[in-house]
């Protein structure tokens, strides 16, 4: 079978035909050059207006990299025609296998972009012997296409979150769709200010905002204020994940202070290495950590009391009705306020102040994917930690959309990967 017949099966162009296939040496490896010719009598398409027009002249042949075959790099070789367009003047023709000045075929771009969902960009570049830049540009193309084609009609629940990047010096605001049947990253914004949030709602548009029924976020004041202002019809739900993060931070403060005091008194460093035992859920602890936790729990430490309060608060989320959950919360806050653990008291105070919004969580139960924000937060952190080239906001943004955006892809006759 000729290579041409395979090509005609996987990627045929109605106005062009494949010609000769030749070996060529490129940087001491053998590559394949595949000639492309216009079909006889076919007129070129103007890249300005998309209409066919008479040919003007022929440019020198160009190479467009295609999907490699058995580890052999493949190039299309084609001499672009210029069109004498009655509407646009003399323009280079548009070809179906590549966009503009791109030296990668669109098919190869999608090929690299798809692999870049499974491997890091650096790995994709290595595996396919191409440059990081080619991988990046392909992902960028895929993201731009996906964003322009995605449908936001079904968004009724969103979750707002932020992650630190650049070693914690900068923040990103992330907005996710958290409808029970559809979860994806919707938006990435620089910083985490009221301005960022307003920018989201502006870009999301009034029509889509009016459809929102649930908005899930942290207790941060600007969130509460802006959401109430622009999407007052939606039920504002405070996220379990964010609340428990506040509690964990409080435990951390109690522990750090107590460990310092114990050290000052010259007592055994019982709290050393205890951090994760106290912050992780008991079911996620390793065997060693479980032993450590058991040992800690026998001691009458402030840290232990804070830990027990946190574990008790976990029960709050298992209630099914806002009424009972509210009663539990009130009782928990009362106990915590008497605990003499200042950081924990602060949390209790904050929870009391947001009692109604907290109880919305139970009203939203079953209707939205309540655990989604935490899951996305973890994935977003992993993506942003992959250091290569994500130092710029725009690159990180593209990486996040690519991995978490669940963006649509064009329908192709053949899937290369
Ligand atoms: Zn034209």
Residues in helix, %: 40-55%
Low-confidence stretches: none
- Summing up helix and strand content along with how strands pair, one would put the structural category as alpha/beta
**Roughly how many Å is the radius of gyration?**
29 Å
Average predicted local confidence, pLDDT: 91
Tell me which ligands are bound: zinc ion
Total number of helical segments?
16
User: Roughly how many Å apart are the termini?
Assistant: 22 Å
Molecular structure report:
With 417 residues, the chain is an alpha/beta fold. The chain contains 16 helices and ten strands. Strands 1, 2, 3, 4 and 5 form a five-stranded mixed beta sheet that branches. A five-stranded mixed beta sheet has the order 8-7-6-9-10, with helices on both faces. A hairpin with a 3-residue loop joins strand 4 and strand 5. Helix 5 (194-204) runs parallel beside helix 7. The protein is elongated, with a radius of gyration of 29 Å. The mean pLDDT is 91. The site of zinc ion (ZN) has 8 residues, from loops. Residues 46, 48-49, 51, 85, 87-88, 91 line the site of zinc ion (ZN).
């Amino acid at each position: 079978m000729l290579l041409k017949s395979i090509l005609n099966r996987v990627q045929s162009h109605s106005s062009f035909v494949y010609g000769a296939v030749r070996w060529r040496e490129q940087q001491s490896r053998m590559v394949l050059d595949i000639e492309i010719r216009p079909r006889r009598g076919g007129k070129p398409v103007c890249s300005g207006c998309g209409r066919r027009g008479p040919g003007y002249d022929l440019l020198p042949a160009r190479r467009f990299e295609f999907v490699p075959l058995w580890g052999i790099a493949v190039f299309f070789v084609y001499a672009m025609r210029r069109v004498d367009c009655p509407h646009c003047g003399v323009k280079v023709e548009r070809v179906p296998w590549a966009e503009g000045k791109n030296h990668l075929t669109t098919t190869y771009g999608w090929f690299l972009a798809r692999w870049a969902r499974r491997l890091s960009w650096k790995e994709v570049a290595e595996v396919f012997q191409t440059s990081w830049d080619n991988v990046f540009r392909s992902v960028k193309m895929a993201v731009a296409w996906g964003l322009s084609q995605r449908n936001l009609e079904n968004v009724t629940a969103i979750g707002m979150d932020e992650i630190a990047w650049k070693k914690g010096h900068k923040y990103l605001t992330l907005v996710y769709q958290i409808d029970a049947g559809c979860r994806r990253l919707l938006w990435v914004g620089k910083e985490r200010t009221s301005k960022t949030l307003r920018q989201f709602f502006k870009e999301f548009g009034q029509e889509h905002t009016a459809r929102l029924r649930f908005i899930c976020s942290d207790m941060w004041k600007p969130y509460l204020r802006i959401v109430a202002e622009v999407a007052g019809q939606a039920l504002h739900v405070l996220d379990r994940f964010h609340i428990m993060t506040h509690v964990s931070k409080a435990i951390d403060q109690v522990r750090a202070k107590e460990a310092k005091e114990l050290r000052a008194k010259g007592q055994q460093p019982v709290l050393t290495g205890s951090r994760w035992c106290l912050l992780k859920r008991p079911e996620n602890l390793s065997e060693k950590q479980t032993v450590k936790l058991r040992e800690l729990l026998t001691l009458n430490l402030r840290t232990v009391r804070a830990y027990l309060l946190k574990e008790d608060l976990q029960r709050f989320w298992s209630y099914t009705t806002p009424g009972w959950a509210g009663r539990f919360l009130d009782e928990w806050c009362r106990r915590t306020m008497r605990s003499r653990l200042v950081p924990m008291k602060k949390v209790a105070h904050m929870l009391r102040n947001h009692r109604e919004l907290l109880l919305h969580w139970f009203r939203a139960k079953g209707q939205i994917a309540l655990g989604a924000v935490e899951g996305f937060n973890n994935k977003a952190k992993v993506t942003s930690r992959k250091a290569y080239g994500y130092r710029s906001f725009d690159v990180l943004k593209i990486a996040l959309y690519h991995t978490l955006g669940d963006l649509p892809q064009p329908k192709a006759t053949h899937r290369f990967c």
